[in-house]
Amino acid sequence: MNPDARRFIWMGLTLALLVFIGLRYGWRVSPVLTTKFVVPTISPERIDTPPEFHEQFVDSRFVHPSAHVSSICQMPDGRMAAVWYAGSREGARDVALYVSSREAGLTNAWSTPVSAGTHEAAGDETFRYVKKVGNAIVFAGTNNQLHLIYVTTGFGGWSCSSLNLKTSTNGGATWSRSRRLGLSPFFNISQLVKNAPTPLADGGFVVPIYHEVMGKFSELLWLRPSANGFQAFKTRAFGGRMAFQPALVPLNETNALMLNRTAGSVAKIHATKTSDGGRTWTALETIDLPNSNSGLDAIRLMDGRLLLAFNDSDSSRDNLRLAISADGGVTWKRAATLVAEAGEEFSYPTVLQTSDGLIHVTYTWKRKGIKEATFNVAWLEAQMRLQNSEGVRPSPGAATSKEQAAGHFSALSNIHIAVPEDGHTPSKQMKGVRE
Amino acid sequence: MITPLAAVIVSFIAPMLVLMILFAALARRLRFNPHGAGWCVGLGLIALGILMIPVAGLPLARVLTAVMDHWSVLLLALLAAGVSKTFFGAELLRREDRRAMWVFGVVAGVVFYPLALGIGSVDPFAYGWHFGPLFVLVGCTAMLLQLQGNRFGVVLLLAFFAWLAGVAESGNLWDYLTDPVFFFVSVGALVKSVVTKSKQH
């Protein structure tokens, strides 16, 4: 064939293919599609109900020496699900993901955990070598689906992680095969997750994820409904090495606040905002709360205020506090202390408000277990009133026996502390103490 | 929800092509003449056999995916051209075609990877997910190259086809255009080419 004719055939083929792709998928200048965040319905809970507070371990058997990074969600049937990882130590080969569930409410106990994944299972399901499993989040989808996104590595440390997605249609009893998400151009590594996604109006989700190789920054994983489950792609909120491990808080359909763990020398929580559904983000700013390079989580409460769980320190993880913002994250007030004990670690909180208005915070307890604090808005209000009058208070869970004897907290709330049988927690059990 | 079959096949074929080229080079050192279909099939089968060796319960080729997650169409084209030239003497990609690919590999790598890994807030990788400016840019580049008779333009067209068929786990066009190994190969080849040229001068 004439070389010129051949050239024009190739060019014509290329042009035809471009036109075909354009017609099939549509032109998009911005990688983010037009969509809207789904925000919790505003229905302020009555605060004249008695303050209620309850603590329990998600798995009180303490079978594993180490447990870390929990995530909770409410399933469509109203029950709650939790996922975390546990094993001999973080990153060990025997680490597995565990899932437990419970009825919503203040004091209902968690079911006996079942394994939701190991490195062997992840390797089998994705047909590739998987060295270890790590951070996982669980969230409810449509049609009674429960989705799990979890981290795996084939080599190296956590910064070499990839993300995997699988789904359960029976409340976490069994799971589909894992799908490895191709999200990074550099060996598909350095994609991690810690906090829950925000639902989108089209039935998809936007998941706050982060990157740790070269830069440390926050990204958004967009899961859009498609014929084969989800179409996955990601966009960046900001670059650099200032902050990462984001918590995404939708403020309304198009506005959202992203709070980030510090990665640099500024030991403060970093914030950025979007007003166009996640397409663009403002420059990073710090808020007036410290961060010791530790995980945090925040949600928008049903009454419109924002609730943040964080380590209130610029150097340690020995306390876990709550802060409230009534102005969309511009200013924050410390509201309550969930736990504090010098020299110990209470970290990686996850916050959820269930449809009954109760607020649940799960967190890593001394790296040995996952603990859940459940309370109502009235308890939070009472803690804030005391906070305003007395400053930062010690936690109910870490109350000394002297404080307990003095009824230090009993005036505030009904305190229920579920204690495991092996004595890992304070030996005293307070139930329904009320003055 | 599982790994695409095409991605699994590529994870075997790509390292197989690498091994075939290496084995042919070794054979030449041992004063054999690895030329023809017999050598190609023989060394190909040996390479495939090695890649099937079970390691940690998986074929070696799948274990390698822990490191080499995906192979770009451009790198696959270079490897296929290398095998074709080695065993059959057929130049699928001529010197000028390869040089254009190396330049693309170096430029894409130098500009793309630092940005994609977080230098600044601009993320070029984000433009590979959907049909948009990147696709038009690559398409126009392909047509320009085709107009000049450069076969790199055809390779870019193949990358479009592969993206459309979804042969990799990733749905991002960048993953079909480049990968870290292609970047390093391009840097090495371009440096070697420049050094050789300067020596000739």
Ordered list of secondary-structure elements with their pairings:
The complex is a heterodimer of chains A (435) and B (201).
Chain A: H1 3-25, E1 52-57, E2 66-74, E3 80-87, E4 96-102, E5 114-118, H2 119-126, E6 132-140, E7 146-153, E8 161-168, E9 179-181, E10 192-193, E11 198-199, E12 205-211, E13 217-226, E14 229-236, E15 243-250, E16 256-262, E17 268-274, E18 285-290, E19 297-300, E20 306-310, E21 319-325, E22 333-340, E23 346-353, E24 359-365, E25 369-375, H3 377-390, H4 401-405, E26 414-417
Parallel strand pairs in A: 1-26
Antiparallel strand pairs in A: 1-25, 2-3, 3-4, 4-5, 6-7, 7-8, 8-9, 10-12, 11-12, 12-13, 13-14, 15-16, 16-17, 17-18, 19-20, 20-21, 21-22, 23-24, 24-25
Chain B: H1 5-29, H2 37-52, E1 54-55, E2 58-59, H3 60-64, H4 73-88, H5 95-116, H6 133-147, H7 152-165, H8 174-177, H9 180-200
Antiparallel strand pairs in B: 1-2
Alpha-carbon Rg of chain A, integer: 23 Å
Biggest pleated sheet of chain B: 2 strands, antiparallel
Helix tally of chain B equals: 9
Structure class of chain B: mainly alpha
Regions with little confidence, pLDDT below 50 for 5+ residues of chain A:
397-414, 418-435
Question: What best-fitting shape of chain A do the alpha-carbon axes yield?
Answer: globular
Show unreliable segments of chain B. none
The CATH C-level name of chain A is Mainly Beta
Name the average pLDDT of chain B: 94
